[in-house]
Specification:
By secondary structure, this protein is an alpha/beta fold. The protein has 20 helices and 14 strands. Helix 10 (240-250) links the parallel strand 7 and strand 8. Mean pLDDT is 86; it is low at 65-70.
């Protein structure tokens, strides 16, 4: 855990009389006041309530250790320039204005901190929602080191045009202090820069800076107010995601992170690419309605279809050379690793290959074979990976579940298929409706993750379930109907949530 300014440490050993076994490291410049056992005993004799106060603090700290969330919202952030010729002051001013909507913010540079000791700096921080320390590349080395010691989070600024070999080595200050990379782009995102700089600086997260809106999103991330949306798999019902996203945007939601499974991964990737609603509709219509990507049938030794059409479709629309790290918005998708039996979370590497793995319905589409691993549709294990999003952020998380309650059904009672002539006749006359093999495989791949999806609901703040049961899992022809259902349903749900507009 973290011991804040003014708190005590070592109270457990004091109360129990046992030797201290914990290790305490200073994450920033600190002043420590030592109270001996004899002095505490005298204090407790004259002020008995002091012992009760220490006991309460020990219990609170134990409870906090048991229930503390994975991440903390940082109060002090150091903005560090990694090389010369960076617009650090302009960035700091812009970021400060974006942060001020969430509370008081203080910008502290070298001149303002001159002559202040650790206690005085802590006092400056105490009244602020965020204290933003500013250390340019050319600033005094002692000041830069002081910023590193003072910060809960390092925000390392680099220009994508520079080579990462020029980066300043940043020492780590314990596991609590996190480090983010802020990568400046002079126009479009420079491919490969995020991966190179992140590896050189050993950052946990990177953020692309091209325009003012990117800094607004960064501000939301820093104060734990970023919004994440997670989209489930569900075949043709997944087109409802397009309508849901459109309604959320119209309601004023700024989507900051996206994730998904199967067709939900495809839709989420479109959001991460900053496609407009119109572009998303047009691309998905061409991809699924104009040409069915899962009808290149083959001898079913591995799967019913070759998978070439699906692979080419994904590479065409999402880019054959685009890496997940180079997406404007943070993105992940999941696949199911049949080799290990675990969920595979894709957050780096080629985007199209990750998407292809996430949509690889077992038996219908061939798996993706990668480094000896067999990857199939993410819906086999986790069809609504809300838990992954919650581990990455502290802001509101919205899940969209389009799997449906009655995914497939039959209008006959039988234990074996009828003879081919009768089967064809019933199909022609639309009698004795039965689900096809592709729909059965798709549903079979999803049904096992229903329990996981239910358990993941606790990780969300809002779950939307558009009523898409009328749409068959592989009926691409109901494209527009699915979008309309998602749009109208989301509008109605949001109108019923007064807090949404507050």
């Amino acid at each position: 855990g973290v011991i804040e300014a003014g708190e005590t440490v070592g109270e457990m050993a004091l109360l129990s009389g046992q030797p201290r076994v914990g290790t305490v490291r200073a994450l920033r410049d600190s002043e420590l006041v030592r109270l001996s056992r004899e002095a505490f005993d005298r204090l407790a004799h004259h002020h008995p309530k002091a012992t009760l106060h220490v006991a309460r603090l020990a219990v609170q700290r134990l409870e906090s250790a048991m229930h503390e969330p994975d991440g903390r919202t940082p109060r002090s952030i150091a903005l560090i320039g990694l090389h010369p010729d960076l617009p650090l002051r302009r960035l700091a001013d812009d970021l400060l204005h974006s942060l001020e909507r969430f509370g008081p913010v203080r910008l502290i540079d070298q001149s303002q901190a001159a002559g202040l000791n650790a206690g005085e700096l802590s006092a400056l921080e105490s009244d602020q929602r965020v204290a933003l320390y500013l250390a340019d590349y050319d600033d005094d080395a002692n000041w830069r080191q002081r910023c590193l010691r003072q910060a809960d989070r390092l925000l390392l600024l680099a220009d994508a045009e520079y080579a990462p070999e020029q980066a300043l080595a940043i020492p780590r200050r314990g596991r609590i202090q996190s480090r983010w990379l802020l990568l400046r782009h002079r126009g479009a995102i420079r491919p490969g820069a995020a991966l190179a700089w992140s590896a050189a600086c050993q950052t946990e997260h990177h953020h692309h800076w091209r325009q003012h809106e990117d800094l607004q999103r960064l501000a939301r991330e820093l104060v734990g107010q970023a919004a994440g949306i997670v989209l489930s798999g569900g075949g043709a019902r997944g087109f409802a995601h397009i309508g849901v996203i459109r309604a959320l945007r119209e309601a004023g939601l700024q989507i900051d992170r996206v994730g998904g499974t199967s067709i939900g991964a495809l839709m989420a990737a479109g959001v991460a690419l900053e496609w407009s609603d119109e572009e998303q509709v047009e691309r998905m219509r061409r991809a699924f309605v104009a040409t069915n990507p899962v009808n290149d049938y083959t001898l079913p030794l591995i799967a019913l279809v070759r998978g070439r059409k699906a692979s080419r479709m994904i590479a065409h629309h999402y880019g054959q050379q685009l890496d997940i790290e180079d997406l404007p918005l943070p993105f992940y998708c999941v696949s199911s690793n049949l080799t290990s039996g675990q969920v595979m979370i894709h957050q780096q590497g080629r985007l199209w290959r990750a998407l292809r793995a996430s949509v690889a319905i077992p038996g219908l589409l061939p798996p993706v074979f990668e480094q000896g691993q067999v990857l199939v549709d993410g819906g086999v294990i986790n069809n609504l990976p809300l838990d992954v999003m919650r581990q990455q952020m502290r802001g509101p998380v919205i899940g969209v579940d389009i799997a449906g309650e009655h995914a497939i059904s039959a209008a006959v009672d039988e234990t074996e298929s009828p003879a081919l002539p009768r089967l064809l006749r019933q199909h022609y006359l639309q009698r004795g409706r039965r689900p096809g093999i592709a729909a059965i495989l798709l549903r079979a791949g999803m049904v096992n993750s229903a329990a996981t999806a239910a358990a993941n609901l606790a990780a969300s703040d809002l779950v939307l379930r558009p009523p898409v049961n009328e749409i068959d899992l592989l009926d691409w022809r109901h494209f527009d109907r699915a979008i309309e259902i998602g749009y109208r349903y989301t509008q109605e749900r949001l109108r019923a949530l007064p807090a949404w507009h507050g």
